[in-house]
Amino acid sequence: MNDTTILEAVDLRKAYGHGLQRMPILDGIDFRVRKGDFVSVVGPSGCGKTTLLMALAGLSQPDTGEVRFRGQPVTQPPQGLAVVFQDYSRSLFPWKTARENVIFAMRDTAQKTRQERRDRADELLAAVGLKEFAQKYPWQLSGGMQQRVAIARGLASESDLLLLDEPLAAVDAQTRADMQDLILELAQRFDQTCLLVTHDVDEAVYMADKVIVLSRRPTSVATEIPVDLGKRRDQLATREQPGFLHARHEVMERIRSYRSQMAG
Amino acid sequence: MTRALLWSRGAVSLIFVLALWQAVALSGAVPAKFFPGIPAIIDGARQMIATGELPRNEILTLGRALTGLVLASVAGIALALLSDASPFFDRGFRTISSLLQPVPPAAVVPMAIFALGLGIKLYIFIILLVSIWGPYLNGAAALRAVPREQILTGRMLGLSPAAIMFRIKLPAAMPQIFAGIRYAAAVSLIAVVVAEMLAGRDGIGFLLVRKSFSIRIPETYALMFVTMFNGVLLALLVNLARRVLTGWHVRQTGASK
Ligand SMILES: Nc1ncnc2c1ncn2[C@@H]1O[C@H](COP(=O)(O)OP(=O)(O)O)[C@@H](O)[C@H]1O
Ligand SMILES: [Mg+2]
């Protein structure tokens, strides 16, 4: 194992149901995430992205195969791993303010006193553009704002790896572009290794240093495509660069070859 | 809707009911002997206050209802937590609850008097029997419905099952539990007064029976109004507790109206 590898999926398999109802979802998933990287996992809706993410996070056990986090096999949620769930409106605590929601994630972190935690929460909320909304409850915020609180909470646990499950699937196009840039900026500023799951090919390529392309169900890794565009991305310039177009083309082609296999 | 407006609406409807009452009494449609006007009823209340029997029994009844309600709420929440933690307990207790729930308090009082005597134990038992279901059933349903993402968030942070129960599930379920407690408050007052009527030693229920048997009509009506007042008082207390414990939800639902 390479010593900069932080997360490793080894031949993960998982099926739902039993007997005739048995439906294989994950069919041998292998990949690695290196420290400091931003990795996208792209696959169509229903292919098992959330199922995969739950197994990576230690929230569910694969039928066979292994997840290794910092070299250790994952059997329950490991320390140093954080998740931003797909449905942000359900993952925030409605009885806590934005600030209290963020503070909730600070367990075993550097901030020990109340004041330190409060300051850190306010710093994170300011970083996601919600400085003035620290005292608001989630239900007083728009969907995009709620997702930003969820991201601030994900950063608050000071994890070595942040898993993001389609964090932008439910927001409008403009907000989406802004949030992509915000997430990239935060990942750099807080030196946060991220694994982003998405069904959107453009988003996967735009955000990542490496794109992991999933096949159709039963799902395995179709291919891995490195994206050599550097850390600085720009919604207009990046999307016009040959490197971007090339990576996007390769991802699309891989997905299309699966589609024609299905048709043929 | 502002609070001042709600209050004034409450006051207006109270005045309306009292005026209607007085109008019926004055019209002579019902013999005045059996349907006294408001001044006569107030007079009856004043006499019972002068003799001390109204305050003494009112304190007993309110104390019983309140103690019983607090205990029923705590026990109902505890049972709901147990039901959520253990499917085995849940299945067993569900059967027991479907047997006990339809039992009317009056049917239990005679045997309960033999077993528990005429003291506070009797009343607490009767109230528990009828009031526990609101908090329990609402609590169990609400605990089951806590969004999975909130529980998983706790698990990712390494919280123990107990911590997830008390720091995530219970606060999430609190608003629905309070809806159950509000219902329990009304039921507990009914149960206390019925039990007092049957036990026949003290309390507003007992006084009500004694006054009606000795055909003290204005006093009987005054006591009926006292039970009504008690209902309002208990509802206000529950609402106060709701504001203190789930103020966020009061504001959330208030804001969406
Ligand atoms: N707990 C479950 N039991 C049975 N089937 C499930 C369960 N969770 C997900 N599935 C099914 O597994 C497939 C993959 O689901 P999911 O991982 O949520 O996909 P994605 O996140 O890629 O949209 C879907 O067909 C879904 O219906
Ligand atoms: Mg999903």
From TrEMBL, chain A:
The keyword ATP-binding applies. It holds the Pfam family ABC_tran. GO terms for molecular function: ATP binding; ATP hydrolysis activity. Keywords: ATP-binding, Nucleotide-binding, Transport. It comes from the Bacteria. Belongs to the ABC transporter superfamily. This is ATP-binding cassette domain-containing protein. It comes from Paracoccus litorisediminis. The lineage of its organism: Bacteria, Pseudomonadati, Pseudomonadota, Alphaproteobacteria, Rhodobacterales.
TrEMBL record, chain B:
It is found in: Cell membrane. The keyword Plastid does not apply. It comes from Paracoccus litorisediminis. The chain crosses the membrane at residues 62-82, 103-130, 180-200, 220-241. InterPro entries: MetI-like, MetI-like_sf. GO terms for cellular component: plasma membrane. The lineage of its organism: Bacteria, Pseudomonadati, Pseudomonadota, Alphaproteobacteria, Rhodobacterales. Residues 58-242 form the ABC transmembrane type-1 domain. It comes from the Bacteria. It is a multi-pass membrane protein. Belongs to the binding-protein-dependent transport system permease family. Keywords: Cell membrane, Membrane, Transmembrane, Transmembrane helix, Transport. This is ABC transporter permease subunit. GO terms for biological process: transmembrane transport.
